[in-house]
What we know:
It is built from 3 helices and 4 strands. It is of the alpha+beta class. It has one domain. The longest helix has 11 residues, at 18-28. The chain is globular and about 35 Å long.
Amino acid sequence: xxxxxxxxxxxxxxxxxxxxxxxxxxAWGVKLPDDYKRVVSMYQGMAPEPNGFRVGxxxxxxxxxxxxxxxxxxxxxxxPEQPRVVLVxxxxxxxxxxxxxxxxxxxxxxx
Length: 111
């Protein structure tokens, strides 16, 4: 399945530079997955929904929000270099989604 990206309704900010990604990694004290960095480098500013969300907590960092208000997050608790993807519910419970960002992307489908 291929993923289709469309311009964000409010703004399209263009690509993210490697320097900006390094700054985020440094501020959070983590290494973002290479496949995630490739996606945001190509498609930053393109999304199916507004891209605002809560800032990360501890070893769990959000990268997207579902239509229901739940956060899709990188979970670094098991590995500082290869995070799992988890869903954090609006109540705060954490649910596993995929063992890697690539596995998450491979599992996307159309309704």
